[in-house]
């Protein structure tokens, strides 16, 4: 059997065939781990293959076959990953859903995908499905993994995972060769998974990706970064997100590396330190939170430790990135020696605390990352790079090559990718990871792909002379102020979110005379800041309206405005007025997508009174808003919000305003 350079099998054009090949090639190597009750449990490739066969047999007894869609809901769990492979082995299509979605959101996906069988993690997910069962009677079976709390559930459609496996083994015993025959029927052009978009501007759409596309991009990524069976990854991001599907599923089945599932979302940092992965992905917000925690802890450290930390941090910022990029010749001998000492006493222990001591490559994407944040991680020896892609391209468009990492780009086109920029400024691509179709949406499929076969990313950007792609904003969001100045809201929002005290921002200005913003403070960061200054507060709403907090936010905005004044195209988009919202933006309230993207249009409509107040002479505005609690109940928050002016600057070369 032929192999590629990374040691992954080449006779396998579908994921079940990939799994079978690994079970032959590296039967005794660890394929996946899960932490349960503080103990790491491991399964070899041979054991995983055996489990998948049994699950496939069990699903077959429930009626799953070619073309069936199976919902998969829960945190990152081995059995849920195996369920996806088992479903694919039968010719079915796994449809992972966001585990934190409320019942009504789940119902839309279930109905749209025609789900009849759901495999879920625990009682929480079972309860959501039972809640919508009266209005969605199409469900025939709900398979649950964790039996805790399920003893007294009388519903006949509930099946424990252990029972499913027992049924499956009996089915395979009664039908020798069944599983292998089903796998042989599979084609690389079959839909391997259906992943739903975040639904930023409307209902989510089911993106159908084939085995061929996902295997191709996984091989491209594995070759790009040299991943092999010796690598480790921590799988903690939602299984319904395309990134997790690529990194923790497709790439693992191509390269044969080990996937590690944390015990819970609360233990991710502890589990990260215990595993010490070699490959890591996190959105910018995670890297921001990690750095915020480090800085908060340093404020509690002894004075001598603080001085050492800040001294060597200055050394790292001065030369760490160049050392990381292999440009040691550009660094003086004194700085190289200082950096080596810093690595011994500060950077190495810090990487260990962050769980990044073994990382060979770390990626971030999905939103812009601040230059200071990006430079910090690279300066302390973490090979952090940026990537770019969408669900529809299987996150396979651009990556930053080693030695060519630039703060203001998302990298160069990956092997097999073509990029062009339309006259409108929209970035369009051709990629091996192109979607097969939007499920039952031929209109949307046709709208997203040009007549000559280019996918419309919806992002505005340009290719530089260095071959790197630079993204400005969503193409549809780039607008104009009344004076004709360019207005790129996401660009402004991201610049403000670089500050650890600011969690979310919503910018307004298209068709108006100036730019104004809503701000969400980071409760942990600002709360710690307030406590150190003896500022008492009763909760988020109280803290958000403190004059001292407004002054803190104003300082951040002033810094951003000064930066914008030096950018010719965006100097007119400086923030003139702002308010700090009385509540955190929440996906349960429809203000964010499940991937934490701001739904700007929805927010503008929901808080229209606040938007108008920003553009009036008022210095405060009363608001009453409905919120949804985790248990499904709704409530009302009332607040009187302050509105403040921000200092702006004339474009560079003119006098300050």
Task: Give keywords.
single chain, 657 residues, alpha/beta, Rossmann fold, GMP Synthetase, Chain A, domain 3, 3 domains, 5-stranded parallel beta sheet, 5-stranded mixed beta sheet, 21 helices, 21% strand, globular
Brief rundown of the structure:
With 657 residues, the chain is of the alpha/beta class.
What's the arrangement of strands in the largest beta sheet? Answer: 4-3-5-6-7
Chain-averaged pLDDT: 90
Radius of gyration, CA atoms, in whole angstroms: 26 Å
Number of helices: 21
**Beta strand %:** 15-25%
Contiguous uncertain segments of 5+ residues? none
| Biggest pleated-sheet summary | 5 strands, parallel
User: What overall form do the CA principal axes indicate?
Assistant: globular
CATH architecture of the largest domain: 3-Layer(aba) Sandwich
| Computed structural class | alpha/beta
Total domain count:
3
CATH topology of the largest domain: Rossmann fold
How far apart lie the N and C ends?
71 Å
